[in-house]
Structures are given as structure tokens and as C-alpha cells.
Design a protein that fits this description.
The protein is α/β, with parallel strands linked by helices and 509 residues long. It folds into 2 domains: 316 residues, Peroxisomal Thiolase, Chain A, domain 1 (3-Layer(aba) Sandwich); 147 residues, Peroxisomal Thiolase, Chain A, domain 1. 39% of the residues lie in helices and 16% in strands. Helix 7 packs across helix 8. This is Glycine reductase complex, protein C. One of its GO terms (biological process) is fatty acid biosynthetic process.
Length: 509
């Protein structure tokens, strides 16, 4: 069985990328340059320390558990965590200025240009970072004076990088005509790459694996890199692995909207199970487009704009070590093309049907991780508490199966559900952010099983009206199991014994 060997989870505080490059703000600027929303927005942007002290962000990097998050009164943005730390068990919350430096480190074509004095400042800060070595720092080169950067931005051949009102750098276009290589797209793609690198570096540190032992990388964000001849041709995976030092790895990109990470996890586990690779990294970088997606509603309600965080994660799937939680491949929940699109039909396909094949009850799974969006980001926009709605639907399936009474749905949600805590970054909340929490609880013997559920809105691409979904069961490792073509030692012995008995019968006859 493949095992979940570790995670890396990072957030980047990006209020200026939100203001200048988030899709909601970009569209507003084009449609209504004198927008009252854009005028008010700067007053609602959080300071870095406020973002660090925000309880869901501390949960994302592993400083507080998800059960502990349940006990913190809402609104969470008025109940900050005292003494909150930038670094956590799974990763960190990086400030925007240092992330600009990481953008430059990630750059392979001299598209990122930082202002001279700013680059020196950020280089000093990154030199103190425990994961940024001299080899990475050496990539901070070719800084330019402010005038040259301003000229590129005003000529619309580059996207500016700002800290407040100060222009500290830019990302240049990679082609004069190709829209797929425009400055805006290059910024989005470099953010995916840089944030993915940060998550992988934390994953390597958390697991202690030698980077040279990673065989394959699967990248599963929602952006696509390519040019006019092959839009989305890739490859984020190898681009991330190159900078992170995964020199013996190959890789590819998997896309499935919000369900992408679940598909990538399935691919990784299957590759390990088959014996094709021993160590596979699944990584997803952050989405600039989703920054401030519900910003108008946050501002209208007098809130801070909470969608100021880029999310990133990395997962290591490895051969069975007899210790880490196993990823079961004998039962996969999947939303088939003919499954139907109602919430009940989707959850039946992803939860009830795979568990029925195992003869397991819905109530026998300790926790479910669904679409783990932080409700404080979605409720102001009228989208409600997305995780809670999913848990109620799973509870309703348990009622239909006769496992609980209708009046017990609330108790089911409390027992088997978790609070939404992930930023609304599309693919980031979809099931996988709880893997670190699940792994810890399984290793500590607090739970025995958990299900990860990813769902995707394929209709957004205008190619089909279908939804998508995939679920995987994660369980406590029963102990070391040596696998030979999928068989245990005992099974092989029994087969050999049977063969010898049959051969002896033949000789006697």
C-alpha cells in the first residue's frame, strides 16, 4: 500500500498582488476606473501581523489543530491568536516582500526584475530563512534602477510589483504578441511556481527525505503554462522540481479544476502501488486570480478583505513503511459521467457507494475532508458555509442508510466534520489541506480512518456541463506489509505450498 509520508503547507500574504492583479480588481479597473470599491479597498487590506494571527491561517500551517479551531469564537478576524508564529509544523506564512524575492529565484528567463535597493534588502531577509540556501540566493541577480522598472510598467510590457504605493519590481512579458506569454499570465504562472517551490522545500524539511530520492512530481494547480501553439502544455512540475533540487525526478501537470489535487493524489498513489516509482511528490501552487475574489462583499460589510492569502501545498506519497497512514486504492469514490449532478447524487457516488463496497458504514469513518473553504470568506458573498453544507449532505446519506436519525444530522456534522479553514484559492481547499491533520491523528492513534473528497466544476471551461469528483480513503497503517506483485509473504508461502502439494499428487499418481 502507498503511504502518506508527509506534507508541506504554506501561505503567502499578498495584499498588493490582490489589489493590482486579482481578477475581481482587474475587471473592476477595466469596467469602472473610478470605482468606489477600488478607492475603499486599501483601507480594508490587512497588515502582515494580522494575517499571521488569524486562526484559520495558523491551522493551515499546523500551529493549531482543527478541533481546536472549532473552539475559537467567530468571527475569527476579531479573535486573533496571541503569540502567533510565522512558522508552523507544516510550513509558514511568508510576507509579500520576501515572496517577491522568491519570485526572482523562481525565474528562469530574466522576466522578474527587482529594484536594486529592494533586492538587496530582500536578499538579506531571505539569507536568514532556514530553507533558502546560497545556491538559491545566487539567483537574485540583474536588479535595475527604479526608472527602468517604471518605464517597463508604464509601457504596458510588464506587470508592476508593489509594496503599498512603492513600485519595487516588475514581471516582464515573455513575447510581444502571444497572449499566453503576456506579463499578466507570466506573473500568475511564476506565482504558482514560486509558491509551489516553497511548499516543496518545507515538505523536504518535514519528511527528511533526500531530494535525490524523489522520482516523480505531479503539479495540480488551476493555472496552465504554455504558449500560443500549446496552451497549457506545461510543465509546472519539472519547473518546480528544478529549483527545489529534485534532480532525479520527472513530472507532469494534472488539471481538474478544484478536484485536481484529488486526481493527483490518486495518480501518485497508483504510481507507487504499481512499483513504477518509490517517492512521488504532489504539489499545488497559489492562484493570483482568486485573490480578493469576494472583496466587494467584504468591503461592503466593513470587514477586512480576508482573501489576501496565496495557498500552496506539497504531499509526499511513498512505499509502505509500516508506519505512515495508507492510501487505499481498492476503493475509490468517483463521480462518473452518468452519475448525475445533484448534490445528493454527487455525494452518493463519492461517499456512500465506495463505502458500501467495503461493507462500511458512513458513520464508521472518523473524519471527512470536503471543500474546506473558510466560511468567513464565503458567507459575506451569500455562498454560505460550504464545508458544513457538504457535511449535512453526507449526514443525510447516513439517514437514508438507516445509520442515524434525521434529528442526529447536527451531531453527525459535529463528530465527523471539520471547520473550513483554507483560503478560497480554488484547488487549495478541496480536501487535501486536512491531510496533515489526518496524518497526525492517525499516527497518534486518535482516529483510524478519514476520507478526502475533491469536487470540481468542469463546466467553467465551457467544454461540458459536467461536475467532477473523486474521493480517497486514508487509514491507519496496520504494520509493515511486504508486497510482491500485491501479495504478502504469507500469501506467497501458501501459493508455493499449494503448488508443491499438487506436484506431489501428480508424482504419486
Amino acid at each position: 500500500m502507498p503511504v502518506l509520508k508527509g506534507v508541506g503547507q504554506c501561505l503567502i500574504h499578498a495584499p498588493d498582488l490582490l489589489y493590482h492583479n486579482g481578477t475581481t480588481q482587474t475587471v473592476e479597473r477595466l469596467k469602472n476606473p473610478d470605482s468606489e470599491y477600488l478607492k475603499k479597498l486599501p483601507e480594508h487590506l490587512r497588515k502582515y501581523d494580522d494575517a499571521v494571527a488569524y486562526a484559520p491561517n495558523q491551522a493551515y500551517i499546523g500551529n493549531i489543530g482543527l478541533e481546536e479551531l472549532k473552539t475559537i469564537p467567530r468571527p475569527w478576524y476579531t479573535n486573533s491568536i496571541n503569540g502567533a508564529s510565522r512558522f508552523g509544523k507544516y510550513g509558514e506564512i511568508m510576507p509579500e516582500d520576501e515572496f517577491y524575492g522568491l519570485l526572482k529565484i523562481a525565474d528562469a528567463f530574466d522576466l522578474v526584475i527587482l529594484e536594486e535597493s529592494f533586492q538587496e534588502e530582500v536578499k538579506e531577509k531571505l539569507a536568514k530563512h532556514k530553507l533558502i540556501n546560497e545556491q538559491l540566493l545566487a539567483r537574485l541577480t540583474n536588479a535595475k534602477p527604479p526608472g527602468e522598472i517604471e518605464k517597463l510598467v508604464t509601457s504596458h510590457t510588464a506587470e508592476g510589483l508593489y509594496l503599498g504605493e512603492k513600485l519595487v519590481g516588475c514581471v516582464r512579458q515573455a513575447h510581444e504578441i502571444d497572449e499566453n506569454l503576456s506579463a499578466h499570465i507570466m506573473l500568475e504562472n511564476l506565482v504558482v511556481k514560486a509558491s509551489g517551490i516553497l511548499a516543496v522545500l518545507h515538505l523536504l524539511a518535514n519528511t527528511g527525505i533526500n531530494p535525490e530520492e524523489v522520482d516523480y512530481i505531479i503539479e495540480c494547480s488551476e493555472e496552465a503554462c504554455g504558449d500560443m501553439n500549446q496552451r497549457g502544455g506545461g510543465n509546472f512540475a519539472k519547473a518546480i522540481g528544478e529549483i527545489a533540487g529534485l534532480v532525479n525526478a520527472n513530472g507532469s501537470d494534472v488539471r481538474g479544476f478544484c478536484a485536481g489535487p484529488a486526481h493527483a493524489l490518486l495518480h501518485a498513489a497508483s504510481l507507487v502501488k504499481s512499483g513504477t516509482f518509490k517517492n512521488v511528490v504532489v504539489v499545488g501552487g497559489g492562484a493570483v486570480a482568486k485573490l480578493g475574489m469576494n472583496g466587494k462583499d467584504h468591503v461592503n460589510k466593513g470587514m477586512p478583505v480576508l482573501e489576501d492569502m496565496l495557498g500552496a501545498f506539497a504531499i509526499l506519497v511513498s512505499e509502505n513503511d509500516g508506519l505512515n497512514p495508507i492510501i487505499r486504492l481498492d476503493v475509490i469514490g468517483k463521480h462518473n459521467i452518468g452519475s448525475g449532478a445533484s448534490p445528493q447524487q454527487v455525494m452518493k457516488a463519492l461517499v456512500a457507494e465506495p463505502l458500501a463496497k467495503l461493507g462500511r458504514k458512513i458513520t464508521e469513518i472518523d473524519y471527512y475532508s470536503v471543500e474546506m473553504q473558510n466560511p468567513e470568506l464565503t458567507e459575506p458573498a451569500g455562498a454560505g458555509n460550504v464545508p458544513e453544507a457538504n457535511y449535512k449532505m453526507i449526514g443525510a446519506l447516513a439517514v437514508m442508510a438507516g445509520e442515524i436519525g434525521r434529528a442526529d444530522i447536527h451531531k453527525f456534522v459535529e463528530k465527523h466534520g471539520l471547520p473550513g479553514f483554507a483560503p478560497t484559492q480554488g484547488h487549495i481547499p478541496s480536501g487535501v489541506p486536512a491531510l496533515g491533520f489526518f496524518r497526525d491523528a492517525l499516527l497518534e492513534g486518535k482516529i483510524s480512518s478519514a476520507m478526502v473528497i475533491g469536487k470540481g466544476s468542469l463546466f467553467l471551461a465551457r467544454m461540458t456541463n459536467l461536475f467532477d469528483g473523486l474521493s480517497l480513503l486514508i487509514e491507519k497503517n496496520p504494520g509493515k506489509v511486504e508486497e510482491t506483485t500485491g501479495l504478502t509473504k504469507e500469501a506467497v508461502r501458501e501459493m508455493v505450498a499449494e503448488y508443491l502439494r499438487e506436484m506431489a499428487k501428480g508424482l504419486l499418481s
